[in-house]
Amino acid sequence: GAVVSQHPSRVICKSGTSVKIECRSLDFQATTMFWYRQFPKQSLMLMATSNEGSKATYEQGVEKDKFLINHASLTLSTLTVTSAHPEDSSFYICSARDKTRQFFGPGTRLTVL
Amino acid sequence: DAKTTQPTSMDCAEGRAANLPCNHSTISGNEYVYWYRQIHSQGPQYIIHGLKNNETNEMASLIITEDRKSSTLILPHATLRDTAVYYCIVTDASSGNTPLVFGKGTRLSVIA
After folding, report:
1. Alpha carbon of A20: minimum distance to chain B alpha carbons (Å)
2. Which residue of A30, A52, A84, B100 shows the fewest CB atoms closer than 10 Å?
């Protein structure tokens, strides 16, 4: 199946700093990518839909000024957590679709101290 | 909101078949049934999907009832590495902008 990569896999940062997470579709082009967040013992929650060349669409309750999404090319989307706080600590997972299936990256574990 | 109902957890003996049920009584005609699983601290992994016919691949079989209101994922010979949370998701696959919406899934524990 198709491969989606994320970088970094794990990041620890201080409160107030910004963290960028990269998501790449390695063997197919994705006009649409999705960002999810998962807290411990909970299911994946959709944060936003990232569209190549246009603004992302955010789910209700997700602050677009805090979670900046840039879908610069057909194979790369980035999520920047700005002014991170401990409550932003979570497992962030990106996803990309080909014609019939949605593929997921391995996830990025963010810990904000 | 997730459109499916799954048991919270199930146990299965290693080497036996694991049968995971899913109810999706409000499924519409153009919606597919997808199954993904998530092993601890990893991203979800695609397993199988179907519209109305039963499907089989190298990982699993998917049995969809004739009225499409429920389905069963079958892992024919469960191993310890199949321990994961299994998600049944109903979605219109024709739209490239439609994301998968995850419910709580079934936590499958394969026991030696």
Report:
1. 18
2. A52
